[in-house]
Structures are given as C-alpha cells and as structure tokens.
Write a structure and sequence with these properties.
The protein has a single domain, classed as Rossmann fold, CATH 3.40.50. The protein is built from nine helices and seven strands. α5 links the parallel β5 and β6. α4 packs parallel to α5. Nicotinamide-adenine-dinucleotide binds next to α1 and α4.
Length: 296
C-alpha cells in the first residue's frame, strides 16, 4: 500500500504499548484511526491524543475475543468512516510467571488462545469480506511474537497462540494477494509494556497469583533472560532500538516499523535484530528431518 493518507485504520489493543505506537504513526501518516481496546479509558486517551494532533480518531471499548462485539465494532467503524483499508489485529495477553506446559492449566490455554488467536481470527472473519469489496489497496497486520520463530521454554500457551496467528496469516497472505490485500506478521521481541500484567484482565480467582502456579524457574534457572525476568514496574531506561534479539526496548519505534512494512507489503516485521542462530538451528532441524528423495 503506497498511500496511507485518507485511509481508515482499525488498530486493536491500541490503548497502550505497541498498539498505541502503531495508531499514532498511522495517524501521523494521515489515516483516520479506530482505536480499539478492552480498556475503555485507555482507548479514549489514545483517541484524544490523536485528535489533539489534528487527525480523526474514534475510541471503541471492545473485547476482541467476543465475536459479537467485533461485529458491533465493524458497524461502528463503517458508520463513522465508510471504509476500512488497514486492519491491525494487535491485542494480546500473556501469562506470568512462565510455567511448564504440564503446569499450564486448560483455562490458561483457553484464555491466551481466545485473545491472541481468536481475537485475530475474529478481526479477520468480520473485516476481510468487507475489505474485499472496498476498491484500492488494503493491508492487514497480525501481531504474533518472536516466540513463534524461536523456542521459548515455559511459554507454551503463548507460543501456541502466536504460531496459530502465523499459520492463519501465511495462508491468508497467499489468498489475499489475489484480492488486493497485503498481510504482514509482526513478531515483537521483548518490549517494555503492560503486557506482563495482562492477568489484571482476568477474574481474581483465575489469576496465577491466586492459584499458586509453579514457575518454570523452579525447574530450570534462566539467568540473564530478560523475557523471563523483566518486570513492568522497573524504571524505564530502555532504548527505542535494540542492539540484540533479547534486549528490552520501548514501544516507541514499533509504529514506524509497521507503517514502513505496510507500505512495502513486507511479510514479516521484527522489532529486534533477528535471532539468526536460533532461526538457522530451527530450519536446519526441519531440513534434517526430511528423508532422502526416492531414486527412480
Ligand atoms: N511486549 C512484548 O514484549 C511483546 C512481545 C511479543 C509480542 N507481543 C505482542 O504485542 C501485542 C501488543 O502488546 P503490548 O506489548 O503492546 O502490550 P500492552 O499490554 O501494552 O498492549 C496490549 C493491549 O491490548 C489490550 N487488550 C488485552 N486484551 C484485550 C481484549 N480481549 N480485547 C481488546 N483489547 C485487549 C490491553 O488492554 C492493552 O491495551 C500483543 O499481541 C502481544 O502479545 C508483545
């Protein structure tokens, strides 16, 4: 998509963190932005921030895991702006502490899959048919994680959900290329946001704290792994751009990376330097798993 000015963007999870950065950057490029978040006050604050800079933005309090609510969102956005050319399915949650797959409850898997995968699917299901009918270039960004590219012990529910986002996005990219709609997958590395406190969005009884979940670190120490050890309340002294694949950064630069990727129709967007050795090892292992071809 070459021109973002005058288009309408829907950004979920835009009340903070990377979604906010993406919403601000799209607005700075001249897009109208529908700021969507389960947290009404956060969505309203970001919409007001965009409005104060002279762009059009609306706030929508929506739980992306609720299909009926996403249908309602689409009705509101089409009534307000008339079209949607950019869809950023970004809302997501995570579990803390990290935990072994066998210590992860069925309800943990359900919650993380519902928001991180079904939330993306609901956006896809509701918006794609209408986007197909809109003339001109269009683009979808689905937020996955570096956790779908490399193996992260203690993070199975999240990795499963993000890998499902990758699978949907890869298939959809091939299909939608024929329909004038680009698809990109955003794979953030460690970014200092409120994601580590996601469980605030669950009922008290469901929270890991109340259930006394056994942390993965009880089995294996992972000293120096910032993804495991990072705390949201640490003083924010992070850089905007990372020097290594696992360095914590601010979300400030994410919006620019996403806007550039939309313009270039890039299939993948990383926020960090690529974890080259891990990616190489994964693909080497895939290739090593293949048999020799039959010789006729
Ligand atoms: N921060 C990281 O290190 C990191 C790493 C990899 C991937 N991600 C992914 O990036 C995306 C953005 O996360 P972030 O780090 O900016 O975190 P964040 O918590 O700052 O932002 C996520 C936003 O989503 C909202 N949200 C949560 N559940 C929702 C729901 N059911 N419906 C609608 N909105 C909901 C939250 O209120 C929040 O404003 C997520 O998909 C996350 O999984 C983050």
């Amino acid at each position: 998509m070459k021109e973002i000015k005058g288009r309408t963007a829907v950004v979920t999870g835009a009340g903070g963190g990377m979604g906010r950065s993406i919403a601000l950057e799209l607005a700075a490029e001249g897009a109208n932005v529908a700021v969507v978040d389960i947290d009404k006050a956060a969505a309203e604050a970001v919409a007001a921030e965009i409005g104060a800079k002279g762009s059009r933005a609306t706030a929508h309090a929506v739980d992306v895991s609720d299909l009926d609510a996403v249908w309602g969102l689409a009705d509101e956005v089409y009534a307000e702006f008339g079209s949607v050319e950019i869809l950023v399915n970004n809302a997501g949650v995570t579990l803390r502490p990290f935990r072994a797959s066998w210590d992860t409850s069925y309800e943990d898997y359900e919650w993380v899959m519902k928001v991180n995968f079904w939330g993306v699917l609901n956006g896809h299901h509701v918006f794609v048919p209408r986007m197909r009918e809109t003339p001109g270039e269009k683009h979808i960004v689905n937020t996955s994680s570096m956790a779908s590219l490399i193996s992260v012990a203690g993070h199975s529910a999240y990795s499963a959900a993000k890998s499902a986002v990758d699978g949907l996005s890869h298939a959809a990219r091939g299909e939608l290329a024929t329909q004038g709609i680009g698809v990109s997958i955003l794979h953030p590395g460690p970014v200092r946001t409120r994601i580590v406190t996601s469980e605030r969005l669950r009922s008290e009884a469901e929270r890991s704290e109340a259930r006394g979940v056994k942390p993965w670190s009880d089995y294996v120490q992972q000293p120096g792994n910032p993804i495991v050890e990072g705390k949201a309340e640490e003083p924010v002294t992070d850089p905007d751009v990372a020097a290594t694949p696992l360095e914590y950064i601010t979300p400030n630069a994410t919006g620019r990376l996403v806007v550039d990727a939309i313009k270039a129709n890039k299939p993948h967007i990383l926020t960090h330097p690529a974890p080259v050795a891990e990616l190489q090892a994964r693909f080497d292992a895939v290739l090593a798993g293949a048999p020799q071809p039959r010789q006729d």
